[in-house]
Design a protein that fits this description.
two-stranded antiparallel ribbon, about 40% helix, TIM Barrel, eight-stranded parallel beta barrel, single chain
Length: about 260
């Protein structure tokens, strides 16, 4: 299980996050476009060289603004083209995977066919560039499709999932997460790990909230990449979350065996 951490658009944190714990994190996830960092401001050559110097693989988070799973054709086309520009950047950086949000206008969030068709097209564009597109759940938000719709859309479109553990907890709880993975774990190629609380807190270190990481034990059989998505620049909290998650699902799997 390859462990990494998200740095968002804070590229200045790359060095400290990567090197603070010896041979710890194996990759970093960088946000591209949207409100994180403008695509045309990214020096892909310099950034890729920096990551190579540190011996780091990389994944990318595609823009989180301008939902593209919308029924208005002109808007959908423009949004997909913008996402494709971000995919070009991901490819130039040598990223293996690109995470995209499964979101839309709240009035259209139940349209599974629209979501499936749109992410299938985005994934095809990613495939052309050698980047695996992974669709992330955020059904706890008004603009997000529910986790079951995301799972079924990904299955019908032949697209990978980025399972966000904290988002899933806020939507369906620990039991719901376990149930979802019972039928969709094979689709999960990438994972975002953070803790959350029912009152709405999210992206806090694992162990400080109510998420039971053993609900994700099934993932141990599928070897996804795992990115810690805790909103802090304290590498100790990031690494502690990574170790807690890996240890929890491995020890629980051993018990079950």
């Amino acid at each position: 299980m390859q462990l990494g951490a998200t740095v968002g658009g804070f590229y200045d944190r790359i060095g400290t996050t990567a090197t603070a714990h010896g041979d710890g994190f194996e990759f970093l996830e960088l946000s591209v476009g949207g409100d994180a960092v403008r695509i045309d401001e990214i020096d892909t050559t310099a950034l890729a060289d920096r990551l190579d110097e540190l011996g780091l693989d990389r994944t990318v988070h595609l823009p989180t603004v301008h939902p593209y799973a919308v029924p208005v054709t002109e808007i959908r086309r423009a949004a997909l083209d913008y996402q494709t520009r971000a995919l070009d950047t991901a490819a130039a950086l040598g990223a293996s995977k690109a995470v995209t949000h499964a979101d839309t206008d709240p009035r259209d969030r139940g349209d599974e066919t629209l979501l499936a068709d749109t992410v299938a097209e985005l994934a095809a564009r990613g495939h052309e560039r050698g980047v695996e597109v992974c669709v992330e759940n955020l059904g706890h938000l008004d603009k997000g499709f529910d986790i079951w719709t995301v799972g079924e859309a990904a299955a019908s479109a032949g697209v990978s999932l980025c399972l966000d553990i904290g988002h899933a907890y806020l939507e369906v709880g620990n039991d719901g997460l376990d149930a979802f993975l019972g039928s969709h774990a094979d689709l999960v190629s990438h994972v975002h790990v953070h803790d959350a609380r029912e009152r709405g807190d999210s992206h806090v270190p694992l162990g400080s909230g109510e998420v039971d990481p053993t609900a994700a034990t099934t993932l141990a059989d599928h070897d996804p990449t795992v990115a810690v998505e805790v909103f802090t620049d304290d590498w100790r909290l990031l690494w502690d979350t990574a170790v807690r998650f890996r240890s929890a699902i491995r020890s629980e799997k051993t018990k079950l065996e």
